[in-house]
Amino acid sequence: MSINFIFILILFSALSHAIWSAIIKSSSNPLSLMGITSIMELVIFIPLTFTVPLPTIEIWYFLIATIIIHVLYRLNVIYSYKFGDLSYVYPISRGGSSLLIAIISLLFLSSKINFFGFMGILIVCFGLFLISYSSKIKFNKPAFFLAISTALLITAYTLIDGVGVRKSENGFSYIYWLIALNGVPLLIISIFSKNGLRQKNTYTIKSGIAAGFFATLSYSIVVWSMQYIEIAYVSSIREISIVFATIIGLIYLYEKNAFKRIIPSAIIVTGITLVYFQIL
Fold first, then answer.
1. pTM above the 0.70 mark?
2. For the chain, what is the total number of helices (H) and then of strands (E)?
3. 169: which DSSP letter?
4. Longest Cα–Cα distance in the chain
């Protein structure tokens, strides 16, 4: 599999994730959009599960664990965007997870990350944290701690999925079952919650479909890529989504502080470029 092709796909995944985050941030009822996303995942991926072997018992442990964590992650995203800007919350959550994934991969997963590759990951993380910092803005404690908890959840499900897809006899079997089922608990919540799908005047089917399309496309590519590239590398490359999110926050969400985060975005790109040359 061509590394250049995989790299381009990860960049596209990053753009898709930034668009999804912007849709969720701008919605007055993000829970409903995630409910529609879950319906899309079921409709598209349940039929695909019949084209691949059934996962083994061992793989089901990974799937059940990641489904639980994905539910907590999506709920965390909803609440964090209520307290902070997209261009503030997003970098902290993604940057924290990249750093944690790199450290855990080196210590426990025997990942082959060389010195320059690790330095690239550190540069990405530094840029991510710098992009969310401003001495002129009052420290947003609720948004910060929600972003940190989101980072922990991202770290957990990324590592679980990275190991799970590698252990699976058929990578697409893991991906199809993961995408088909990971939104089911949240779909149930969105159906029975008074702030979910029952609030029909607070969302549109069109925006829900758009959110579902970009969310599904983004993470499917990420999990597939982790079969061929070290998990920490995939995670750090994907964080160029921060640059996309900052630009979206500036142009489309009219976040005034987003403009100050453009220069740190260049640091992120530098780190990702360094990582890229380590996987060639």
1. yes
2. 12, 0
3. S
4. 55
3-state secondary structure of 135: coil
Written as six digits, the tokens of 231 are: 């998990």
Residues 6+ apart with CB under 8 A from 151: 92, 93, 94, 95, 96, 97, 100
The whole-angstrom separation of Cα 116 and Cα 227 is: 22
pLDDT in tens, 24-34: 878 888 888 88
Tokens of 184: 């089911």
Tokens of 167: 């252990």
What span, in angstroms and rounded, lies between the C-alpha atoms of 172 and 153?
A: 23
Rg of the Cα trace of the chain? 18
Number of CB atoms found within 10 A of residue 2's CB: 8
Whether the Cβ atoms of residue 86 and residue 255 lie closer than 8 Å to each other:
yes
- Helix 262-279 with 241-251: angle, nearest 10 deg: 160
Amino acid of residue 210 = A
Two structure tokens written together for 267: 């640091």
Q: How many CB atoms lie within 10 A of CB 44?
A: 15
d(CA 266, CA 221): 24
pLDDT digits (tens, 9 = 90+) for 151-191: 899 899 989 998 999 999 898 999 999 999 988 888 998 89
Give pLDDT tens digits for 240-271.
777 787 777 777 766 666 666 667 767 777 77
Cβ pair 76, 133 in contact under 8 A: no
* Nearest-angstrom CA–CA distance, 85 and 150: 15
Residue 82 to residue 191: CA distance in whole angstroms: 21
pLDDT of 86 reads 66
